[in-house]
Design brief:
Layout (H helix, E strand, L loop, with lengths): L7 H16 L5 H8 L3 H9 L6 H11 L23 H7 L3 E2 L9 E8 L7 E10 L4 E6 L2 H4 L4 H4 E9 L2 E7 L7 E7 L7 E8 L6 E11 L2 H13 L1
Antiparallel strand pairs: 1-5, 2-3, 2-9, 3-4, 4-5, 5-6, 6-7, 7-8, 8-9
Length: about 240
């Protein structure tokens, strides 16, 4: 039986081509490298096919981009997309007519700047970024807390994932860090007094014995590179 053997150069080339596509989705390579915890010079060598990441770095890259090791073997467009996880029909029927698909018009894809205002007696505001992409009925969310909020500088320790759905005029979202740590329940609605893509609402955090509620303002940055870079700098300072 013939064995499909790839040379190291072929593996590096395929990985580089796929990484270039994945990295193109992010407005700043420098910020992407910071989130990955990878040296930018070394990352550029991965992109060009000159170098190959260590197994632990490859695992980190795959987890970050939500892909698997098949990115070494075939182009991204030939890798089947993950199975879509829609709400069970029984849940959909129970929530109707209030439940509606979260459309691009209602909550556009792209990057958002989240401003979380301090609770009672705390005048501080924390800022963090979250990116959205739409599925069939909802939106998948992914973001990173600032080090001061997360208690760590590592990308893995600061990463948030979750989803958002729409019911009536409100958008409901659930986010947490890995293994369900520091869960956040968010309820927002479009600020009709602001024409620049702002949603306002509240966030309940479940990380402590007593849940805390914070006021939120979420501003859509879309795919604006300059605005996203400035927001990332603001988030790192909080």
């Amino acid at each position: 039986m013939a064995v499909d053997t790839r040379t190291p150069a072929e593996l590096r080339s395929m990985l580089g081509a796929n990484l270039r596509q994945l990295a193109d989705r992010y407005p700043s390579v420098a910020e992407l490298c910071r989130q990955l915890g990878v040296n930018r010079t070394q990352f550029n060598r991965y992109l060009s096919g000159e170098s190959f990441p260590r197994p632990d770095v490859l695992d980190r890259i795959c987890r970050f981009f939500d892909v698997d090791a098949r990115i070494l073997l075939k182009p991204l467009e030939e890798i089947p997309a993950p199975r879509r996880c829609d709400l069970p029909e029984s849940v959909v029927q129970f929530l109707r007519p209030g439940l509606a698909a979260l459309t691009e018009d209602a909550f556009p894809s792209g990057v958002y700047l989240v401003t979380q205002h301090g609770g009672e007696g705390d005048p501080r505001a924390h800022h963090w970024l979250v990116q959205t992409r739409h599925l069939h009925q909802c939106a998948v969310l992914r973001g990173f807390l600032p080090p001061a909020m997360a208690g760590t500088r590592s990308a893995t320790g600061r990463e948030l994932r979750g989803f958002a759905a729409c019911a009536g005029p409100n958008i409901y979202a659930v986010l947490s860090r890995e293994a369900g740590r520091d869960s956040k329940t968010i309820v927002i609605r479009k600020d009709m007094t602001d024409s620049n893509g702002v949603w306002i609402g509240s966030c309940m955090e479940h990380s402590a014995a007593t849940p805390h509620i914070y006021r939120l303002e979420i501003r859509h940055l879309g795919h604006d590179f300059r605005a996203t870079l400035e927001a990332a700098r603001l988030a790192r300072r909080t």
